[in-house]
Amino acid sequence: MSIIANKYLHKLLLKPKSPLLSQLFGAYNTAFKGSGQDYLQSRLYEEGDDARYIDSRVTARNIEIYTKVFTDERLQDVVIVFDISPSIFVSLDINNSDNNLLENIVILLSNIVLSNGDKLGYIAFSDKVERCSIPINNPSILIEIEKVINANSRKTKTNISSALEFLYKNFKQNTLVFIISDFFDDNYFELLKLVCTKFDTLIVNLEQVNLQCDDAILLVKDSETGRINYLDSQKDINNINSQKKIRSYAKLLNVDYIETSSIDDFIKKLYLIMRRRIFYLK
Fold first, then answer.
1. Which CATH number covers residue 192?
2. Domain range for residue 131?
3. pLDDT computed for residue 174 by the predictor
4. Is 32 a domain residue?
5. Both 41 and 16 in a single domain?
6. Is 57 exposed, middle or buried (0-12, 13-18, 19+ CB in 10 A)?
7. Which positions ≥6 away from 77 have C-beta within 8 Å?
8. What are the distances in angstroms from CA 230 to CA 90, 105, 157?
9. What pLDDT does residue 250 have?
10. What is the DSSP track for 168-214?
């Protein structure tokens, strides 16, 4: 097991020391579950009770004020859909030392989910669904996920549609879904639309390629095909960017979206999304 996996497994029993991580763990429960609990009964209002939950009907029939009581929040099913095609592990930015971005993000999310008592499942895909698991509440799934990410035995392309179709057909509604990829693929919008309609979806776009140069011709090796090609920094990079339509897709579908190139940046953006969700719930 890697140092990263071991670190986050250890944190399952400890409160994170980082203030931002602490807030992240604390905000998760409200941000992704909300206050939509099952009504249990009404009781007499006590000082300190939330005025929003006053039961107006019962209060109207009695002299005293009554408030609603809810059952504990049911376990949330969470599925992390992540891309393990070779391009996801490649960075052409020499200033980017974070070569384990995918692993850091997936393990961190898994740790948060399990720490909050929810059930975690995953779908790992390349040109097809490579491995998957139904949502379970067992820390051992972290070790399984870490092994899948570090297998590094795939020589395949990215096929997002295969993962989205599998997700849509095999997982129940009201599941919280994180989709993590570099989205170097086409023709997946209709399936993404179905997924976002059925599930509470958050899209994470990993910015793995960050070329900052003017007119240049580069000799590069395609990590997914093994072929060596010439890359025109003006023409071919524009073609790469034209494939990355996921930002506009997320906006069109009105789903939460994070574009990131480092784990610190991801944590900050995820925290902001959680805070925004909590604000809308109030």
1. 3.40.50.410
2. 3-27+74-281
3. 86
4. no
5. no
6. exposed
7. 118, 119, 121, 135, 171, 172, 174, 175, 176
8. 17, 32, 19
9. 95
10. HHHS-TT-EEEEEE-----S-HHHHHHHHHHSEEEEEEE-------S
Q: Which residues of 201-234 are buried (b: 16+ CB within 10 A; e: fewer)?
A: bbbbbbbbbeeeeeeeeeeeeeebeeeeeebeee
Boundary (domain end) residue, out of 49, 70, 91: 70
Q: Which two tokens stand for residue 145?
A: 């996920």
**Pairwise CA distance, residues 267 & 24, whole Å:** 8
- Beta carbons of 149 and 84 less than 8 angstroms apart: yes
Distance CA 186, CA 216 (A): 26
Give the mean pLDDT per block of 10 residues along the chain (282 residues): 47 55 78 68 85 88 86 80 84 49 92 90 95 93 91 75 96 94 91 96 80 48 50 48 77 95 91 85 58
**What's the one-letter identity of residue 77?**
D
Are 107 and 198 within one domain? yes
* Those residues with Cβ within 8 angstroms of residue 211's Cβ, 6 or more apart along the chain or in another chain: 92, 93, 218, 233, 237
Q: Which residue has the tokens 């008592």?
A: 117
State the pLDDT at residue 216.
52
**Does residue 66 belong to any structural domain of this protein?**
yes
φ and ψ of 207, to 5 deg: -85, 85
Cβ neighbours of residue 80 closer than 8 Å, sequence gap 6 or more: 106, 109, 110, 120, 121, 122, 123, 145, 177, 178, 180
* In a shared domain, residues 47 and 101: no
**Domain check: are 146 and 48 in the same one?**
no
The CA distance from 71 to 41, in Å, is 9
